User: Fold these one by one.
Assistant:
Number 1:
Amino acid sequence: MSTPQTSEIVARCQALYEDLNFTAAREWKEAEPGRKVIGFMPIYIPREIIHAAGMLPLGILGGGDQLEVIHGDAYYQSYICRIPRSTIELGVSGRLDFVDGMLFPSICDVIRNLSGMWKVMFPGVYSKYFDVPQNYEDEVGGRFYVNEMAEFRRDLEEMAGRKITDDDLRRSIGLYNRNRRLIRELYALRARTPWKAPAAEVYLVVRAGLVLPVEEHSALLEQYIAAAEAEDRPIRDNCRIVLTGMFCEQPPLNLIKSLELAGCYIVDDDLLLVTRWLIDDVPLDGDPLHNLSQAFLHQSESTAAKYEPDQEEKGKFLVRAVKRTGAEGVIFAAPSFCDPALLDRPMLQNVLTRANIPFIAFKYAENSGQMQPIREQAGTFADSIKLWSAA
Ligand code: SF4
């Protein structure tokens, strides 16, 4: 069988991205009786446990720029981010009627409130506010997190009508380890040769993993990496930047494309954090829940979305990302009204100022349509980096 071209792979991923009826997940569920789908909101969920139960973890990232929010606005005030409103819209419009459970990972009060609303609005659906540790000591946060995961495992066992064994979990962890390795490989390829793997393509290919079974997504990643490496594409005179600050509401695809068209190669980002939260393999021997907990505490990047108790460490992840990828600047892009991102930003900017790394900042909504101001701002930033580095 011939290897597909990048354009074929990206077209498939784009179709998955645009499909707000989640046809691929519906078909997966219908393929065998008794299958169940568990939706999850950003930012981090141990998808391995859902997979080990024989269920499909389905990432729900709001409605993007294609969904008109009609009912969702009635449930929330206007001065919060858009993702809870568009997620409600997905729910009340029946687009999630095949989803058997919804997880709301702890990231901010908006998501916490949404988890309560979901319980009231969809009483027949398993709904859980999924707490992750805010304390990184093994005996405190570590033990708490193992208990959280054990409770979740029991809930899924009840839904599945069978036990989830440690070996089931190990097998799933192995599959997700492989998936994360491939995504790291893809990011490394883009950092080395960003013209071969444009950021919008990388985004679509990684995002497909939120709706496809992990085995299928890993095969797709392998195909894209091979095709991207083999393809010749023109090199542009772009500067290299790190894109950061996204939290859960994702920017429109056009925004990512606009940054590259404006002269900025994105060589690292914190989009779709669930896919790269753990930065190393989770060990397969020993107690799997303990291993997942240890990985969360000690093998995760200190992005703005993770609580960082060590003030000296705050923001250093950005300096490391700039050095690792040879970036020349940082673009902060945060969802409008996202308190966690916007409150963190000044602290991160101070760290960059001290490290002499240039940056710019703006806000977006998942349905932002006007890209001209962002293109102008990013284009000026790229020009200033080139002039500044040539001086
Ligand atoms: S985008 Fe920000 S404010 Fe909105 S739900 Fe996510 S973390 Fe909360």
Number 2:
Amino acid sequence: MKTSRWLGLFCCTLLAALTLRAGAAEWNLVRFESREYVTLDNIAEFYGFPKPPPVDLTGHFAVPPVGAPAVAPAPVTPVVITPPSGLVTTVEKITDEPSPISSQEPPPAVALSKTIVLDSGKMQIEVTVGLREAQINGVKHWLAFPVALHDGQVLVSRLDLSRIIEPNLRPELIEGMTPVTTVVLDPGHGGHDRGAMSKFGFEKDFALDVALRARKLLESEGYKVVMTRATDVFIPLDQRPAVANTIPNSIFVSIHFNSSSTNADARGFEIFSIAPRGAPSTNDSGPRERDLREEPGNAVDMPSGALAGSVFHALLGHVPMVDRGVKHARFAVLRLCTQPAVLIECGFVSNNAESTLISSSAWRAHVAEAIVDGVANYRVLAERKTRPKVIADYRRAAVTGVNLRDTATP
Ligand SMILES: [Zn+2]
């Protein structure tokens, strides 16, 4: 495997700083198909995850079944035994250390999976060889490039490490986050642009309703709120982020509903922030030339990513919908916004069950509350540099009846 030292080669100051903080662990870059990667073993070592099990040539990990002790296989040496028939045969026998598994119990079957979960108790990452989907601390995140397999090593792109994994595992170290005093709410579409449609109504009206409910809640919690539209009017796309760009210490939250013309089963929540420079948009199948362009929104792509994660954990933690993931795009409202910005897709009007939910004002009120909790979650991170709550915190609080809003708002 060709490796080169991370230090000295990697121009990103963030990861240079990380390397200094890492102390014991060093980053080794692996070049593969003209892209730079780090190994999963390297990531595990850096963040203090248990060492991943070995991967086979087809990209499968040997994953012990749930509850089985994680034990590295003992060395295997061939031994010769003579069966009663007199025929000599060779079998494999496990030698060395006695297994912690009782000899009375059959050894657990080992499942083969292309997915591996790294769990330190405090943090969790799940990656799958060949896929761009990863789970980080309980929600789906879309990587820029598929997890690769090369030379017996599982590889994660350097860009995904620095722009997705690191800021989600250690969000308190993200730089450039400013306090949040104003929330710019951007209900999608409006006027002649009706957006998607269900038998119950138009996306533009549902989005405006959720935004107006969120405005009320945010104002009651002391935020200033500016709406890109508060009525059914058409606002050109470039004028929407321009509203936030003139307001210091603001964040931009665009609210939409989703639709699929080809898949009536498509459902769930997803959230977008600006794609980092060099990363394909999640909905593109591969890199494009425009991915290399520096967009105005790239100046805040780390805070925007943190806002997306904070809001998405709250959203899914409060409203049990399918997790379609934290995604990246170059939508005009994200590209042109120089304040932290996200676009939320609050379910599918093209899905029967979800369009019924979306038509319910009580359900939309619930979504608005979850978005407001997500904003509070980001505000705590931005202003106190403490970790935002994750989906499990919200779900636990729902079970125990704790009001997280009381604790989340500074
Ligand atoms: Zn829309």
Number 3:
Amino acid sequence: MTSFTGFRRREARAINSGNLRWADTGPTDADFIAARGLSGEPLGALLERLKWGNDHRAYARCVHLLGERFYDRKKRNVVKALCHTAIREWLDENCKKCGGRGLETDKFRNMTTCTKCNGTGLHQYADYERAHMANLAAGSWKKYERDYETVLECLRGAVSSHTVGAMKAFEEVAA
Ligand SMILES: [Zn+2]
């Protein structure tokens, strides 16, 4: 059974790999590439490509598609800066203290749960940080807060349905 993180790591390697030969000896990078394309979730696939494949050409397209997702839900346009901010936040989501491990070393050199993120490994973005990234006055963030939550939901939804879709396609491709 392929685990989520295992799949993601393998996917990242496959994106960066020039080795696309098909082999009879178990799944190859080519299988992963094929599965990615079959996930049925173009925004999620592009976001993963941007993050794990360091493919910066995907960025503008991600912003555009994310804006479209918002429009589909709310029937109005979103402030583009919110899409930029959500993508940047997602690209840099690790806790600044523990680097995303969720663990830190105490003064007795024992590993303990990170006190900053409580072990989640995620950085909890504050309103002022988001406003700053979006180039908006910190005091005006309340006005954008709900739209921003929607943008984040669209983004996370796209990423998780891409992962689910790609894993399913991978099981079929590699079977
Ligand atoms: Zn932490």
Number 4:
Amino acid sequence: MEQQQQKRYVLGKREEDGRYPVTVDGALTGTVHRRHGSWYAAIPGHRILERFSDRHEAAEHIVKWFEQGARPTVPAPGDRPATGLDMRTAGTGLLATRTYQHLVPDLVPTLPNLVRAVEAMARLAQLGWEPLEGYPGADQPWRMKCRLCGWTGRRFWSHLRGRNGDNTPRPLTRHRGCIPVSEMAAKLTTLAAERRRECTCAFPHPTHVTPMLEVLNKIGKALHDGAMLSATIHARAILEPCPASTMRAAALRLAHDQRARARRTVGQKIT
Ligand SMILES: [Zn+2]
Ligand SMILES: [Zn+2]
């Protein structure tokens, strides 16, 4: 019982993405990170919304969750990554690659979440917004740039996507200080001319169902195996900016539904 007075956790060194690995009873369990002056705790597969005043308080919370039975759920059973680096890439989501900084670091990386992220980003492009960070979920503030005037700030996807089948983004004025509402349609038409039906990027992005299914299967297998670095690399194909993002999102939705149906038919669990 002498152990009781000692800290249950070990806080690792800051990783390059700003997260600190937290080891509980010798097992890598989660990470803590600072964002906008507060500290947050994360265990892969669990969303912890509380904010903390310092990294130790956040790490203590991971211990508390661990004691209540929370375990990182991303790595496959028996395939727990052995190194801090692997654990870091397991994070709460897919981390940015060197070439692209805006993957989805704060979402639990499941295929349905990725599909939502891709659809949200395609719609943002149509609405004249450019994401400045990965899709955080519909009801989390999302940092983005207004392509009509250059303003940057945070918007909620749940407001921009409209609701109850009404696709009208709110508010109509976009944000304080934007161009007059009467000039917005013309400006959006100009921006629409940038979009393409086929990808023209050096790193190809699938816009048809068959190649999309291949990418989804690769991401699905990597997520299932807890191979987060592979998942991140394969996810580039669907998450990187692309002039054909609308076609890509449509192909992704079709491929995802088709895959889910096929897996249901053979009685497998949908990942
Ligand atoms: Zn604006
Ligand atoms: Zn492309």
